[in-house]
Write a structure and sequence with these properties.
Layout: H1 8-11, H2 25-28, H3 30-46, H4 52-78, H5 85-116, H6 123-151
Helix pairs in contact: 3-4, 3-6, 4-5, 5-6
Protein name: MALL protein
Membrane topology: Multi-pass membrane protein
Pfam family, one: MARVEL
């Protein structure tokens, strides 16, 4: 009779709860995503918005992603996932979708930065838009890293 080995569910790494979230690689990206995303919407809000349609999308993506990521971080800290495999799928899908949305927002913010270079609002507006573009691309990179590290875990 063949011996029964460990089941596939037991070989999967456990989802972290509590402070262990900050020590586990894929989940440790959530806090930097929130911080960089917060910088994006603060910097965009600080500019005199010359292209409301472009920067409105940037504000929507950054604020919504920041709030959903904060809720996801709180759910991991409080252990709502109960080590379910569905949370990994949800996490991977959320971060993959958000990475695509953030890439579109980062490109639109870069376009707004280029357009603000020659505006009459001065160099401060250009510098704020440049910083917002930088943080938007950094945040996009963090979401991509998180999505792929969950997927390949």
């Amino acid at each position: 009779m063949a011996s029964v080995g460990p089941s596939a569910a037991s070989t999967q790494p456990a989802l972290p709860s509590g402070p262990a979230v900050f020590k586990t690689i894929p989940y440790a990206f959530i806090l930097p995503e929130i911080i960089c995303g917060t910088w994006v919407w603060i910097l965009v809000a600080a500019t005199s918005v010359s292209l409301p349609l472009l920067q409105g999308w940037v504000m929507y993506v950054s604020l919504t992603s920041c709030l959903i990521s904060l809720l996801l971080l709180l759910s991991y800290l409080l252990g709502f996932h109960k080590n379910s495999e569905n949370w990994k799928v949800l996490d991977s899908l959320y971060h993959g979708t958000t990475a695509i949305l953030y890439m579109s927002a980062a490109v639109l913010q870069a376009n707004a930065t280029i357009n603000s270079e020659f505006s009459t609002n001065g160099p401060l507006n250009y510098q704020l838009n440049s910083a917002a573009s930088f943080f938007a691309f950094v945040t996009t990179f963090l979401y991509i890293l998180h999505a792929f590290s969950i997927y390949y875990q």
